[in-house]
Fold this protein.
Amino acid sequence: MDLKSNHNAPVLTDSAPLSKSRLRRYHGLTLPYSPSGAPFSPNLLLSIPRRKTGVLDDVRSCGWLDAMKSSSPTHKKFAKDINHELSAPDPEVAYRTWLLKYPSALASFEQIANFAKGKRIALFLDYDGTLSPIVENPDNAFMSDDMRSIVKEVAKYFPTAIISGRSRDKVYEFVGLTELYYAGSHGMDIMGPVKQSVTDYHQNCIKSTDKQGNEVNLFQPAREFLPMIDEVFSSLVRITKDIKGATVENNKFCVSVHYRNVDQDNWISVWECVQDVIKKYPRLRLTHGRKVLEIRPTINWDKGKALEFLLESLDLSNCDDVLPIYVGDDRTDEDAFKVLRGEELWLWHFLYQNHRRKAMRITLSETQQRWTGYPKPEKRWESKIFVVYDDVCVNRGRSIDPFIMNLLAAR
Ligand SMILES: O=P(O)(O)OC[C@H]1O[C@H](O[C@H]2O[C@H](CO)[C@@H](O)[C@H](O)[C@H]2O)[C@H](O)[C@@H](O)[C@@H]1O
């Protein structure tokens, strides 16, 4: 997992050790992690209000069924959002106007390249829905050979990492590229470059070796939760076994309960099963993604924190000449978008349930974005928002490769 010497960013150089206050700023931590076996550091625990049933706030506010549905917004919802934004009564007119307002990223690539000029790029990629198509069976979410080659190529020039909700092993199995860094379980399992100051700071960060025998840093902030997650996984498999189409996936530090193939009339049963299990585990929380309910530890760690951790490990954080690019398509990716502010380039690739209206969004952000839905761009970013439309979306088999090709060409 060594970075190649021809990377624009010299990522393995260990600079002066980080001060604790600097690291705190990055990670929002006030204390190091508790040693394995000891109670988990209270500062990392998220305080998430629960009802007796254990229902999360966001699920509660719109009703669980709505929340499960909204995990893949329909075209209707998209049109409603656009209508609201543009005050146009006709969805079709609103959509076309929206397209004019947010031009194609590919057509605007020169502008993006200018912005990137002189900067060291670091690329962060989500897996499902970004590098691979969304498919019915999660075990079959393979990335294409073309996509693999292009990611391999880009990693020759820019440090590249995949940050996925899957287990790290699983996503590595799918991608199979040794030249990347991998963060699984929504960032709770990171294998990155060795950086002594990072290892020193994080108690759950240890030196390890990757499959090729290279020395790496292994960071697993939710290590204490492993037995709990295994237990929950087994319970969920047992309890959902009679719901046709429901599947449970062990993502090591989190568990996914898929309802994509469950008849909508039975979604309530899926929900109830999950509630039945997690109500016994106050240290676990529930989130939802694309037709999936995800059970994860209540720790203050997500894809955004993982991104910061990787930038730090790569010696690329807090540098004016670094341009991190994040490509993702899901709610969990918003955690990563949120940490990229200032002059970073954000890329949001979002897909719609009916696969008719898809777009990829690139935002050169000026400030932190607050997402409240799909897609509600803030006014002040208008001139810097680009969209890549249907024809390059992953579900049509072409995906983000033109964007990456352009990046390579512009370097
Ligand atoms: O962070 P990601 O890499 O995007 O992973 C998020 C979840 O992706 C997978 O589920 C999603 O993709 C499946 C395959 O296309 C699809 O069948 C499912 O409905 C989607 O939710 C993965 O299976 C989950 O474990 C990840 O958490």
